[in-house]
Amino acid sequence: MREASFVKQNKEKWIVFEKALDNNVKISPDDLASYYIQLTNDLAYAQTYYPESKTLLYLNSLASQAHQKIYITKKESKNKIVSFWRDEFPLFFRQYHKTLLHTFLIFMVAVVIGAVSTLNDDSFVRLILGDGYVNMTIENIEKGEPMAVYKSGSNIGSFLGITINNIRVAIIAFAFGVFFSVGTIYVLFSNGIMLGAFITFFYNYGILEKTSTVWLHGTIEISVIVIAGCAGLVMGNSFLFPKTYSRRVAFMKGAKDGLKIVVSTIPFFIIAGFIEGFITRYGEQMPWFLAYGIIFLSLFIIVYYYIFYPILLEKAAKQHAPKLQLT
């Protein structure tokens, strides 16, 4: 579509929207949010087909004003915390699905590198996991208790220590994004190689099935570290690829969006810590169907909340968005 035709087709609704932002037209906060979705679709179209055009600059400015307007005038729900995780965050995170995919691919490449390296070099796992951990695990394997390390310590102590450590790793993965995304990629690679080496280490000893005990908590833990890595890339990429914003404005927006993503992971880290502290230690005695039930339920919750649920919310928002009319 030619730019002139695109402008002619959408000009009237943009004018109404602009008037609404200037308080010349009364509009409810919920309708304003719905209109904002339409505007961002037009903005995305303009970014693709009319880069560096005046139309793109206009829509970008209008979208920025709308964003501020929505978050200033939108009616607060009675329970802001519930509203954030139920509605606000999933719809917000939809725009970063592509970044999440890139983060996942980076992590999986690292896992493969760790696995292949361990298969071909017995000393590699010691380099990655450390002699102390490897020697201890070998002793436990010889005793017939390869997962004995997860039975040590008190329930509450393990829960608190693990949860705090996992949140620390997530914050580091996010914060290192300030180094032009390279820092976050390093954290992802480090954890991915470690996971690949760990799994292959048990495979080499012929007890790969025993790692199901680790996946009781690891399913959520690893998944959410990847999501925290996504937050770091959101911040780092905002500076590298500012699009129509200045680098300063783009970076500030990316840092804010990345922080919101990190905050969303905290409840999941708490759940993972609880499972590791109170359930994983009984994993080897647990019936296989219960263990795998917990693993697949954990995976379903993560995939649904961060991938499918945002898509469903976006579709619902578009379907219920009222048509703009001139007044």
From TrEMBL:
The keyword Transmembrane applies. It comes from Winogradskyella wandonensis. Keywords: Membrane, Transmembrane, Transmembrane helix. The keyword Heme does not apply. Pfam families: SpoIIM (PF01944). This is Putative membrane protein SpoIIM required for sporulation. The chain crosses the membrane at residues 100-119, 156-179, 186-208, 214-240, 261-283, 289-308. InterPro entries: SpoIIM-like (IPR002798).
